[in-house]
Design a protein that fits this description.
By secondary structure, the chain is α/β, with parallel strands linked by helices. It has one domain: P-loop containing nucleotide triphosphate hydrolases (Rossmann fold, 3-Layer(aba) Sandwich), CATH 3.40.50. The chain has 8 helices and 7 strands, in the order αβαβαβαββααβαβα. Helix 1 runs parallel beside helix 4. The radius of gyration is 18 Å and the shape is globular. The termini are far apart.
């Protein structure tokens, strides 16, 4: 209870959160216009740490990189290791280090877009991937200006995660189960994961893939092509 004003503090907290999210959403609209002016479609990749976002991007670059101009904005709390992996593939990449923040937001992606334009030097991307900070909670609340929001879940994490983290799936456009080559080694129910996710969001496009072996990867590539179409 707030002893000074009797508000309990909760009302102030709620209004502050609403104000922050409203400002973020307004910037996200401007980001989307910026991305479209570049001629690109943006994909926001969200997942827990270690689900395989960067590995997915590496294989995507191998498959599509010579055909479709790609670029990446990498979000991470501290290091630039993921950006370094993407850069080795010859794709323009901008690192955003949040310094402890558990998600990307629209204002910081706005800065990333300007840095990316310096990086690409006129070679405009058609697909822009935004690899969010590894977290299934906070990133779900912040629009970035993306055209598609993709949530990843790896087999080692367990098939109960859609039920435990519903907000991430409610706002997503696609659901990708990764590391399916590990299915023989983990107690993961594909049926449970898909049923839980689709119960939350029946419009989800669902895919199960292994970036290591390439199994199911055609569905992911087809999905990306559909975004461009």
């Amino acid at each position: 209870m707030c002893e000074q004003c009797g508000c309990g503090g909760r009302g102030v907290s709620i209004e502050l959160e609403r104000s922050l999210l409203a400002a973020n959403d307004a910037q996200a609209v401007r980001n989307r216009a910026h991305i479209e002016a570049m001629g690109a479609v943006a994909v926001n990749l969200m997942s827990s740490p270690g689900s395989g976002k960067t590995t997915l991007l590496e294989r995507t670059i191998d498959v599509l990189g010579e055909e479709i101009p790609l670029a990446v904005i990498e979000g991470d709390i501290e290091t630039d290791r993921d950006a370094a992996r993407i850069r080795k593939k010859g794709v323009p990449v901008v690192q955003i280090t949040t310094g402890g923040a558990c998600h990307l937001d629209a204002p910081i992606v706005h800065l990333g877009l300007h840095r990316l334009e310096e990086e690409i030097q006129g070679r405009r991307p058609r697909l822009l991937f935004i690899e969010n900070v590894g977290n299934l909670v906070c990133p779900a609340a912040f629009a970035l200006g993306e055209h598609a929001r993709v949530v990843l879940l790896s087999v080692p994490e367990g098939s109960d995660k859609p039920a435990k983290y519903p907000r991430a799936f409610l706002g997503a456009h696609a659901f990708v189960i990764t590391k399916t080559d590990l299915l023989p080694h983990f107690d993961f129910s594909m049926e449970e994961a898909l049923h839980s996710a689709l119960s939350l969001n029946p419009a989800l496009e669902c895919m199960a893939i292994s970036s290591a072996t390439g199994d199911g990867f055609g569905a992911w590539i087809s999905y990306l092509r559909s975004l461009l179409a």
